[in-house]
Amino acid sequence: MPEPSHFRRILILWIALSVIATPLVVILAAPGLPPGDATSEAAGQVTDNTVLLGIATPIAALLVVYFAYALIVFRHRGPEPDEGVAIRGDNRVQLTWIVATAAIVLFAAVYGTVRIFGDSGAGGGQGPNPIAKPSGDPLQVQVIAQQWAFTYRFPSFGGVETPHLELPVDQDVEFHVTSLDAIHSFWAHQLGVKADANPGVDNVAYARPTETGSFDIRCAELCGLFHGHMFDTGQVVSDSSFQAWIRGQQREFAPATRNLNPYNRGYLPHPERRAG
Ligand SMILES: [Cu+2]
Fold first, then answer.
1. What is the 188 CA–ligand 1 centroid distance (Å)?
2. pLDDT for 115-164, tens place per residue?
3. Averaged pLDDT, 21-40
């Protein structure tokens, strides 16, 4: 019996599996990918994860098909065979490999660079001079990390500092993330925001909530004994609810606000405070 064309068989199996699996993965699995679509930044990250998953599916399918095919068809049966012919290089295989991998890597590099300047990149801490930023006039919220809680300061509302976070829906938010002591990280998962909090540093990140609801806030940098205690639930609310909330906070914390340090983009650690 003549040797069948293994290459053609694998190619057909691979194409068939890719054609079936890729739409299933992209349509069924991708919409559930983190971090969801509560903000334009989060939704941008889901889009990027979907694209990467769409590219990765045929690659994974090729590995699975080849592995299964080799296990079944290339399995040795019968007596010990003679040693095979030494194969040294194959121009077609080498060329295909170089072209295919170069195309995938270059696409990922260009795609990633373009996307990081848009919504997808705006949720990451960009330092004091952000590149990806929304147009218009965002609401400024300073996130102040400290052992072991986040507090929030609103410079456009008299510099009031609040222990919890509420945000208005359909409004760009400009987070200014900083720290009073150790290195922390402000991670608001469903907002698609994660930014390091360093003392004396103003780390800017953006998010535009597109739906009301709650979101998780966590410290994502081991920052001491009660690091695990640095979690809270924030709320995205309607603009009128937000206005009512922030006015209430201004009234409630008026005595504290008078005694706060003046609003600053970064605060240096208090030596006395660190000494305990
Ligand atoms: Cu922390």
1. 13
2. 988 777 888 888 899 888 888 889 999 999 999 999 999 999 999 999 99
3. 90
pLDDT over threshold 70, residue 40: yes
Name residue 159's amino acid: G
Expressed in angstroms and rounded, the spacing between residue 204 Cα and the centre of ligand 1 is 17
Q: What angle do CA 164, 208, 241 make, to 5 degrees?
A: 50
Residue 146 makes CB contacts below 8 A (sequence gap 6+) with: 179, 180, 181, 184
Domain boundaries, the chain: 6-73+92-122, 139-275
**How far away, in angstroms, is 117 Cα from ligand 1 center?**
28
pLDDT tens readout for residues 188-239: 999 999 999 998 899 999 999 999 999 999 999 999 999 999 999 999 999 9
pLDDT of 276 reads 46
Measured in Å, residue 78 CA sits from the centre of ligand 1 at: 64
> 3-class secondary structure for the chain?
CCCCCHHHHHHHHHHHHHHHHHHHHHHHHHHHCCCCCCEHHHHHHHHHHHHHHHHHHHHHHHHHHHHHHHHHHCCCCCCCCCCCCCCCCCHHHHHHHHHHHHHHHHHHHHHHHHHHCCHHHHCECCCCCCCCCCCCCCEEEEEEEECCEEEEEEHHHCCEEECCCEEECCCCEEEEEEECCCCEEEEEHHHCEEEEECECCCEEEEECECCCEEEEEEECCCCCCCHHHCEEEEEEECHHHHHHHHHHHHHHCHHHHHHCCCCCCCCCCCHHHHHC
Identify the CATH homologous superfamily for domain 139-275. Cupredoxins -  blue copper proteins (2.60.40.420)
Distance of CA 76 from the midpoint of ligand 1 (Å): 57
Strand partners, 139: 173
